[in-house]
Amino acid sequence: MTRRLLRMWLVMLLVCVGVAHAQAIEPMPFANHAQELRFQHLTRQLRCPMCQNETLADSNAPIARDLRNQIFQMMQHGSSDDEIKQYLVARYSNFVLYNPPLTAGTWLLWFGPLLILLGGTGAVLVAIRKRSHRDAVATEASTANALIDSTPTDNGDDW
């Protein structure tokens, strides 16, 4: 009896957790399929300000839902994609764009990984050169010591 009750509670808990995480996608009344494709394309180009690593299309955050509704409303009022993006950039900065434009404020975002890669490559090359120089000096020193040890010394003893 206790096992049966425990299993029932476990199943109920799993169902409740599943229901809490399941969120229905809110249907939007698009005028036609082209408008729906435009909406999907646009929301995939924009980043969720809360999630930061998800598009507006993929995010379930409340702000993402609000922004999707805002985009839909702007599309219904005849706003172009550029106007919608400008509105969101004015509100959330270039961060909301997955491909931000190259400006003075975003050059590090665009070229930072390359600079880090070049710096790492330079550090590795310097370390390799130092090691090879140190090995060459050690080899020369051991060769010189071997020569000194192998030369006969004249200590005045003649046989």
The portion of residues forming beta strands comes to under 5%
Helix content: 55-70%
CATH architecture of the domain at 27-96: Orthogonal Bundle
N to C succession of SSEs: HHHHH
Rg on CA atoms, Å: 34 Å
Runs in which pLDDT lies below 50 for 5 or more consecutive residues are 19-24
Mean of all residue-level pLDDT scores: 81
Give the class-level CATH name of the domain at 27-96: Mainly Alpha
Cα distance spanning the termini: 107 Å
Q: Say what the CATH topology of the domain at 27-96 is.
A: Helicase, Ruva Protein, domain 3
What does this molecule look like?
The structure is a single chain. The protein is mostly helical and 159 residues long. It is 65% helix and 0% strand. It contains five helices and no strands. The radius of gyration is 34 Å and the shape is elongated.
What key phrases describe this protein's structure?
elongated, Helicase, Ruva Protein, domain 3, mainly alpha, single chain, 159 residues
List the topology elements.
Blueprint: H1 2-21, H2 33-44, H3 62-76, H4 81-92, H5 107-150
Gist of the model:
With 159 residues, the protein is mainly alpha-helical. It contains five helices and no strands.
